Amino acid sequence: MRKPALGFIFVTLALDIVGIGLIIPILPKLIEELSGGKTAAASHIVGWLMTLYALMQFLFAPVLGSLSDRFGRRSVILVSLFGSGLDYLLLAFAPTLPWFFLGRILAGITGANITAANAYIADVSPPEKRAANYGLVGAAFGLGFVAGPALGGWLGEHFSLRTPFFVTAGITLLNWLYGLFVLPESLPREQRRAFDWKRANPIGSFVALRRHPELLGLTETYFLLSVAHQVFPSTWVLYTGYRYGWTPKEVGLSLAAVGVMAAIVQGGLARRIIPALGERRSIIVGLANATIFFVAYGLATQGWMIYALITVGSFGAIAMPALQSLVSKSVPLNEQGAVQGGLSSLGSLAGILGPLIATGVFGHFIRESANPRIPGAAFFTASLLLFGALLLALRAFNKSPIKPAASA
User: Fold this and answer.
1) Taking Cα atoms as reference points, which of 344, 277, 285, 335 lies closest to residue 132?
2) Which domain holds residue 119?
């Protein structure tokens, strides 16, 4: 069962990310049109939309994580996919900005794919293979972003800015049908535990993490890493359009390049690099790489430089699967959903703060009265956060070892 299960979850995530990737190149442009054509104003609206989505994830991811411990991972994945499909249809017809805010609320409530998927992987992976298999999640994201943004940019440029939402809704609902008939359950009934509202809330999910004090430094690292990476989804389209004059098609191609490298690094090279370096060294190397290359993104004066930076900077992606592997190894099987829900809550909290920080810094330093204008300021800020994550990881490794948990 393990190999087919991983294949199913890989395809499910890849198709899901194709859908998400389709709308990335066009959403800021559409918001810009609805808000009067001001890039600085649109950047703040995009930031608030992403923050609202993350807030809903923060509130509801622990609920869905605990539900997956009670009823299994499969049902949570299917519910979230179906909800996402309906959300994309709502956005396709949304006539005004308030409808986009409603859509983000619904998407945030149902968007628990990653929480359930990470718990699913922990269910079916022996400890020694978890880092490699978590790399498959990154590869699924990478492959999804190869096709999604390129197709979304092309559809938005040659048809209309609404077209990618209809295509995304179709792909997501087909993905739901695929999972409905093909995706097997990963958590045996005898390993499930009762649902408890004390665990199924953001505070309770943090308590679940605090039950493992040896993970404190790693969860802090995870949080700062997640905040820093919000600079990409929240400002990439705005930044490249402002600084390089890229069209949606060109933005889509750049995101496809990110996807190719993510698939190569996390889906292939990480399976060799992480076992060779070990999880701790992989985290340190990955964070150091990202710290340096985020500065480089902010300094790049020509669009072609971005592609060179993507090629080498993508190796920083080995930090996340190595970090997830270390965390999962200390948690028994029937707590994976709750702990992954806790990590999702941290990620969602990062998603609340990150876009506000990134778009706020970007908008502040490109406004007409800004002196000096620094288009790359958001990337410089993200680099400082990554450096902080690196220091926290080093401190955590010096304090205490990570001990594998016994199966419950």
Assistant:
1) 277
2) 2-180+213-399
Taking all residues of the chain, what is their mean pLDDT, rounded to a whole number?
Answer: 79
Q: Evaluate whether residue 268 is within a structural domain.
A: yes
pLDDT digits (tens, 9 = 90+) for 354-386: 888 998 899 889 888 878 889 999 999 999 999
Q: For the chain, what is the domain count?
A: 1
Return the pLDDT at 266: 74
Please report the pLDDT score of residue 297 as a whole number: 95
Residue 167 lies in a domain: yes
Domain presence at residue 189: no
| Burial classification of residue 372, based on how many CB atoms lie within 10 Å of its CB (0-12 exposed, 13-18 middle, 19 or more buried) | exposed
279 is a domain residue: yes
The answer on pLDDT for 1 being more than 60 is no
| Full-model pTM | 0.67
How far is residue 279's CA from residue 317's CA, in Å, rounded to a whole number?
13
**CATH code, domain with 148:** 1.20.1250.20
